[in-house]
Amino acid sequence: MSIEARFKLDKGDFRLDVDLTIPASGITSLLGPSGCGKTTLLRAIAGLEQCQNGYLKVAGRVWQDSDQFVPPHQRPVGYVFQESSLFAHIDVRGNIEYGYKRLAKAERKISLDKAIELSGVGHLLQRKPETLSGGERQRVAIARALAVSPGILLMDEPLAALDPARKQEILPYLESMHDELDIPVIYVSHSTDEVARLADHLVLLEEGRIIASGATGEMLTRLDLPLAKGEDAEALIKAVVAGHDDEYALTYLDFSGGRFTVSQKPLEIGKPVRLRVVARDVSLTLEHQADTSILNIFPVIIDEITPVGSSQLTVRLLANDVPLLSRVTRKSAALLGLEKGKQVFAQAKSVALLA
Amino acid sequence: MFNESDLTALAITLKLAGVTTLILLLLGTPLAWWLARSHWRFKFLLEAIVALPLVLPPTVLGFYLLVTLGPQGPVGGLMESLGGRPLAFTFTGLVIGSVIYSMPFVVQPLQNAFEAIGHRPLEVAATLRASALDRFFSVAVPLARPGFLTAAVLGFAHTLGEFGVVLMIGGNIPGETQVVSIAIYDHVEGMEYTHAHWLSAGLLLLSFLMLLTVYGLNRRFRIVQA
Predict the structure, then answer these.
(1) Numbered residues of chain A with Cβ closer than 8 Å to any chain B Cβ
(2) Does the distance separating the beta carbons of A71 and B120 come in below 8 Å?
(3) What pLDDT score does A259 carry?
(4) Going by CATH, does the domain composed of B4-221 fall within 1.10.3720.10?
(5) Chain A environment of B121 (Cβ under 8 Å)
(6) Which of A4, B14, B106, B135 gives B151 a disulfide partner, CB atoms 3.0 to 4.6 angstroms apart?
(7) What are the CA-CA distances from residue A22 to residues A167, A169, A197, A231, A232 (Å)?
(8) Are strands A250-255 and A234-245 parallel, antiparallel or unpaired?
């Protein structure tokens, strides 16, 4: 099942011209700088933006082609706007029930209770929207969108209007939603952090055009894309909790290229997790260093090297086919004789456990 | 206090204001909605026409209505040829005149209220399965409630105070088209100041109470929305 979208839109100073096929499963993130057209694309998928000669097919059903345009209220989408946009004239419960009440009984696959529980808003039901904090409002908006049992969930930077603490408050709900409900999500973002944490699939937009699309781990480490050249270039690694070391309070996380050792986390053995390894924190050695405090060392093969600025390089590494990035100076690379195909060792100074 | 013809005039006035307000809300709501939403480039033309009664001397409006609705006028003539009677000097004629005269007082607050809502809540409602009509009644109307209150009270109060249009088109027929404002004028003409006082004070009090309601309630709305 997939989502096929072709849209062309000319708004004077802004043009959107996309031809996109993405999987209708997991979380797909539309990433790009502001003004690149990601919100317009999302709105076109919801039917809020009318593009002539557009084509849209979602999971086998045509929503738009030259003959038809399914109006927004007949599309099985849930939409979370950037500002929560709760209805000011009704309380939280009324907001969440608004769409639910308009569904036929057979369409109600997600119960109100489930939507409320997944968003953690049970204690807010009697409140009026204006009395809620920003984070609470956004959670109510998410519950409201889930309560229409959407076939696809569209989220337009749901965290952008929130401060970092509020973001941390919402992310776990998004993750549990991802884990518990099998709803494809299209998630607009300009934050690589959010994307690394949530997205399975990544679509990069620039000036109304798609410059690349693919699996998140792959996209983050592609040297021909701007992501790998940025200051925060990073690799995403999917690993599984392999065990705990109670004596030293450590947790072992296995991936096909080796084993990460991190500070102990209360995670069940076998649970899948995401790790973020920032390119700046990865150094390279020719020999397996024994006398080092760094625990996370992997044999890798240099896959590709690209210059960043005048003094630095980004090196793409493969640890048994799992891509990693390392940022080194041009001088070190010359001293070590780094080149494509060479076998070296990657030392990761720090690793962030995302979920 | 009030004599019998005063009470009749008062009843006619309240009935006129009530009927006018009701018709204006029914006609003015879709018109205001359209004015608030439309991107038609000549929309300003219609806006200017709606606002015209704000600046036009009521006698001018009344005069044209009289000419149109009277037996020799196009509408009045048509009515007569169909076996009816001309609308000039009837209660129906008064209602038509009042609807036109009070139009901006109802349409403008409604238009402002609808514009203030913006597109977003309606888009949200659309993504929550609400059809266009459903969105209008379940989102736009409740969110524009302060606007409806203002529109209703201003339309009502403005019709209460009408004089020129009513005099031109309704004449001054006691029991049919004589409203309070004209009755007051008659009393003053006849040097019956006590009667004029009672009626004037009654109208003053009524108008003030209504405006008090609008401002009081809308202030509460604002606090709630802040």
Answers:
(1) 46-48, 71-75, 77-79, 81, 83, 85, 87-90, 98-99, 102-103, 128, 130, 144-145, 148
(2) no
(3) 93
(4) yes
(5) 85, 87-88
(6) B106
(7) 26, 29, 19, 28, 26
(8) antiparallel
Bridge partner residues of B145 (DSSP): none
Range scoring the smallest mean pLDDT among A101-105, A172-176, A203-207: A172-176
Q: DSSP string covering B103-130, please?
A: HHHHHHHHHHHHHHH-SHHHHHHHHTT-
* B123–A contact, CB cutoff 8 A: yes
CA A250 from centroid of its chain's CA atoms? 27
* CB of A239 closer than 8 Å to CB of A253: yes
CATH number of domain containing A146? 3.40.50.300
**If we measure between CA atoms, which residue out of A242, A221, A179, A198 comes closest to residue A306?**
A221
For residue A160, the enclosing domain spans 2-220
- The rounded percent of chain B whose pLDDT value lies above 90 is 53
Interface with chain B: mutation pick from A43, A70, A73, highest number of B CBs within 10 Å: A73
Residue at A202 is within a domain:
yes
Q: Structural domain tally of chain A?
A: 2
Considering A193-207, B119-133, B184-198, the range whose residues carry the highest mean pLDDT is: B119-133
CB contact under 8 A, B127 and A78: yes
With H, G, I as helix, E, B as strand and everything else as coil, classify residue B179: coil
Task: Please give the pLDDT value at position A328.
Answer: 94
